């Protein structure tokens, strides 16, 4: 599909989720933040959907033939008649080629001559997003608090064009995710100002949030010796500290997008860093909602039994 053949373009991606620091601090992922910036730069409508179920998405797309609907960072199977829908998603292990959704979108824009070239940093961002943080060398990984603050600083109404162009310019100039995040965090843009404010606020709330989560955690050990913690709330932004302080290999917590499902996450810096989390647990296949191609995350309906 050629972008130039349509009068309007609408980009859809998934919604952001609350962190452990309060509902006012919501975060998405780095690749969908980049997708939102691309949309703003090109003048497309950019829409985050809290509900990405096929029926809801199909109802939002409509049937306007003059609109190209671009779906990024969540799975969607267009019906045969949806010939104005294009999907850039990496979550299906059967079709994933190791490139994140923003990388796939940029490749297509470059192929159609709408973008000069795909920034070299997208290779590292794809490894970070698709395989997991352990696929990026430690010196290139961003400071976790700065990273979360930049993600949380995305305006609810989306980026203005000037900020979007700045984000993409820094993406072209940066040699690592760490440098990219630092450039955004330290910038004199509205995004940078908000990120620094949020950073100060979450640092003040960190110990309180950690104490609340750890205080209600249940730590167990499986028959094979896997230590795991079961939490009663989503620990977004605090997983690294939780793994460290509880000394566990796996964390199980309520999934932020699928009601009644749980996320099973391995410590990608621990002793099972190269073991897919699906190999560490037993769960009926029909109960599995999603298995990340990078192996560090499994979403399923209970019961989930750690081997």
Q: What do these coordinates show?
A:
Helix content is 35%, strand content 20%. The strands form 4 sheets. Strands 7-8-9-10-13-12 form a 6-stranded mixed sheet, covered by helices on one side. Strands 4-1-5-6 form a 4-stranded parallel sheet. The longest helix is centred in the middle third of the chain and has 26 residues, at 190-215. It is globular, with a radius of gyration of 19 Å. The relative contact order is 0.12. It folds into 2 domains: 3-199, no CATH class; 216-306, no CATH class. It starts with 7 loop residues before the first strand and ends with a strand. By secondary structure, the chain is of the alpha/beta class. The chain is built from 9 helices and 14 strands.
N-to-C span: 46 Å
Compute the number of helices: 9
SSE topology string: EEEHEHEEHHHHHHEEHEEEEEE
Instruction: Write down the Rg.
Output: 19 Å
Average pLDDT, rounded to a whole number, is: 94
Structural class: alpha/beta
Helical fraction equals 25-40%
Strand content: 15-25%
**Main beta-sheet strand count, sense and barrel state:** 6 strands, mixed
Uncertain spans: none
Topology:
Layout: E1 8-14, E2 17-19, E3 22-27, H1 30-42, E4 45-49, H2 54-61, E5 67-72, E6 85-88, H3 101-111, H4 122-131, H5 144-152, H6 161-173, H7 177-186, H8 190-215, E7 218-221, E8 227-230, H9 239-246, E9 250-254, E10 262-266, E11 281-282, E12 288-291, E13 297-300, E14 305-306
Parallel strand pairs: 1-4, 1-5, 5-6, 8-9
Antiparallel strand pairs: 2-3, 7-8, 9-10, 10-13, 11-14, 12-13
